[in-house]
Specification:
The structure is a single chain. This protein is α/β, with parallel strands linked by helices. Helix content is 23%, strand content 18%. It has 6 helices and 13 strands. The strands form 4 sheets. Strands 1-5-10-11-12-13 form a 6-stranded mixed beta sheet, with helices on both faces. Helix 1 crosses helix 2 (31-42). The chain is globular. The two termini are 18 Å apart. The relative contact order is 0.19. Pfam families: CoA_trans (PF01144). GO terms for molecular function: transferase activity. InterPro entries: CoA_trans_fam_I, NagB/RpiA_transferase-like. Belongs to the 3-oxoacid CoA-transferase subunit B family. Keywords: Transferase.
């Protein structure tokens, strides 16, 4: 196998979000997170549940393996037994996420998706984030509208947890005393200064930042030959 691409490191970083979760419903939103969830199921997280987004539990290849009744889906959604990976138009140092609008909500400069299910996701399930273009426009000091709830607003929420944020530059967590965002690992070829310059708030950075875990030969084969033989991942992360 040839060396891994940046996109493949991102797939690995997303897959790692579900490590140790056990039998929970993975809800990845977007191409790279979906590849990550399916890779996790095929390797280190065999108990992970995957869904077609409607009413079926599926195998990593998309073929049905079970039925997901609406009542059972609601039990998973509200009881901490689902791990979501959403996107973010904006995210701040405490993990508050915005996907609704840019600017004041009364007269926004730009209308986006809307709040949708972000509050329920973040208060009732572990929620990670995938951001394919790390920039100061996304990593902001204060989000314009809180959709997904961060650590500074989630007091008393039983199932609230933000395990990780994955971007095209690295992996981030909230393993700090004040639950602010920390740089957890760097993708190959990325420097700490690059990350700092692309982040609109003061990021917690340890003295030594490890590299993002390298894919194994088996994982690369699964990504390239089984999960994404058409190479669509490169369209989301080109480096």
């Amino acid at each position: 196998m040839t060396g891994a691409t940046r996109a493949e490191y991102c797939v690995i970083a997303c897959a790692e979000a579900w490590r140790g979760d056990g039998e929970v419903l993975a809800s990845p939103m977007g191409l790279i997170p979906s590849l990550g969830a399916r890779l996790a199921r095929l390797t280190f997280a065999p108990d992970l549940l995957l869904t077609d987004g409607e009413a079926m539990l599926v195998r990593p290849d998309g073929t049905p393996e079970g039925w997901l009744p609406y009542r059972q889906h609601l039990a998973l959604v509200t009881g901490g037994r689902r791990h979501v990976m959403m996107g973010a138009s904006q995210i701040d140092r405490f993990g508050n996420q915005n996907i609704s609008c840019i600017g004041a909500w009364e007269r926004p400069r730009r209308q986006l998706l809307g709040v949708r299910g972000a509050p329920v996701n973040t208060l009732n399930n572990p929620t990670s984030y995938w951001i394919p273009r790390h920039s100061r426009r996304v990593f902001v000091e204060r989000v314009d509208l809180v959709c997904g709830v961060g650590y500074d607003r989630a007091a008393g929420a039983r199932y609230h947890r933000v395990p990780r944020v994955v971007s095209d530059l690295g992996v981030f967590d909230f393993a700090t005393s004040d639950r602010s965002m920390r740089l957890a690992s760097l993708h190959p070829g990325v420097t700490v200064e690059q990350v700092r310059e692309a982040t609109g708030f003061e990021l917690a950075v340890p003295e030594e930042v490890p590299p993002t875990r390298e894919p194994t030969a088996r994982e690369l084969r699964l990504i390239r030959e089984v999960l994404d033989p058409a190479g669509t991942r490169a369209g989301e992360v080109a480096a």
